[in-house]
Design goal:
The structure is a single chain. This protein is of the alpha/beta class. 45% of the residues lie in helices and 16% in strands. It has three domains: 207 residues, 3-Layer(aba) Sandwich (Rossmann fold); 127 residues, Nitrogenase molybdenum iron protein domain (Rossmann fold, 3-Layer(aba) Sandwich), CATH 3.40.50; 27 residues, no CATH class.
């Protein structure tokens, strides 16, 4: 990891100082492509050709899934902002409060390339930002691996500002801006270890969502579970590669034995415990990205679950439903960070501001306490800001 951080720091510094020149240098070095500055941004003609290439069925699919994701996040947005339209009385008479929610102005979305294309990541990052009202959304993805499906998904989601840049250099470009890529206020989206390291190092200069690591699934199962479903879901998670973690915790010896025969040699972890209570305790300690509960009455276990990125209840709720279709963003905390963080949501694209309005009478009645507190902390100017008003009351 020290070697990775050293390389990423070098990339960041070079992009910060050299802008597009550095982007082109790293694009040649890591992607094997010799681009000109004008070729960094995807042109409208390229997007049009992508639509012709993917076909009508894919276009319809993206629109259906986009609608699902929008519905979920619109509901979320309304719940967040429903009380922010008018002043509310505070705990003290004479003080009124108003919560203002404002969208972040400029957001950069990273869509990974590599072995697979990820149009789903386009939907799961851009749609919540759009619902939140973000006025400018830019997207980056590694050149040479920027698929037609990803381009079409971005356009359907309303994004045309797309750049052919990947890796830590793309994150640095978003953080500091270059001649071609304007800087943003926040960066979201999963990536490899270099992308994640760059986000960590640049936090403060730019906002970030979460530091995503290898994907994870943990399944809690009792003797009522279907072992074929368990095997399928474990293998689906292992398919991600890159250190993906797939784990089963079960109270059933039969389930463990059947699953073990079918996943042997796949790097999947199996554990038998005495009780579901012990299984939930272990699950909470692991804080998995995806938690499947395959028990007779899975809803009864929910009150005991404290840490998980997303929970899938019952045998008809595979992780794939959440990855592609249900609605909530599939950008989720990994590596145990579900202990203190949540999956990507509309909230990640909104800023909350509290408006405080105090009446003359309330300031007078509260003045002594405010002045005393300020004097205890040795902040005389704070005390004076109240005292000066008392003479005019």
């Amino acid at each position: 990891m020290k070697e990775v951080e050293k390389k990423v720091r070098e990339i960041i510094e070079r992009v910060k100082n050299q802008g597009d020149k550095a982007l082109l240098f790293y694009t040649k070095k890591y992607d094997g492509l010799l681009l000109k500055p004008a070729e960094l941004r995807v042109k409208k003609g390229e997007i049009e050709r992508a639509f012709n290439k993917v076909g009508l069925n894919f276009i319809k699919l993206i629109k259906r899934v986009k609608e699902n994701v929008e519905k979920f996040h619109f509901r979320e947005y309304k719940q967040i902002t429903k009380k922010s339209q008018q002043f509310s009385q505070g705990t003290l008479k004479g003080i009124r409060f108003l919560e203002l929610w404002r969208p972040i102005e400029k957001v950069g979305v990273y869509v990974p390339g590599g072995k697979y294309a990820y149009p789903s990541s386009v939907l799961m990052t851009i749609v919540p930002a759009k619902v939140a009202g973000v006025p400018r959304i830019a997207m980056v993805s590694p050149p040479g691996k920027l698929s037609s499906e990803v381009l079409v998904a971005a356009r359907i989601c309303g994004v045309e500002e797309i750049y052919k840049v990947g890796g830590a250099q793309a994150i640095a470009a978003f953080a500091y801006g270059t001649e071609t890529i304007p800087k943003v206020d926040k960066i979201v989206g999963p990536g490899n270890v270099y992308v994640t390291t760059a986000k960590r190092l640049l936090f403060g200069d730019v906002g970030i969502d979460i530091l995503a690591g290898p994907s994870e699934i943990l399944i809690i199962a009792d003797g009522n579970a279907n072992p074929d479903y368990i095997v399928s879901d474990l293998l689906a998670q292992a398919e991600h590669g890159g250190g993906a973690i797939a784990c089963l915790i079960t109270t059933s010896k039969r389930i463990k034995d059947v699953v073990e025969k079918k996943v042997k040699g796949k790097g999947i972890y199996l554990m038998r415990v005495r009780s579901i209570k012990e299984a939930t305790r272990l699950a909470n300690g692991f804080a998995p990205e995806h938690l499947e509960i395959l028990t007779k009455r899975p809803e009864r276990i929910l009150p005991e679950i404290k840490n998980a990125g997303e929970i899938f209840l019952g045998e008809w709720s595979p992780v794939a439903m959440g990855d592609y279709y249900a609605g909530p963003s599939h950008v989720l905390p990994t590596g145990g960070t579900a202990r203190f963080s949540s999956g990507l949501s509309v909230k990640d694209f909104l800023k909350r501001m509290v408006v405080v309005e105090c009446s003359k009478r309330r300031l007078r009645s509260s003045a002594r306490d405010i002045i005393s507190f300020a004097e205890v902390e040795g902040l005389e100017a704070h005390a004076e800001s109240v005292k000066i008003r008392l003479g005019r009351m």
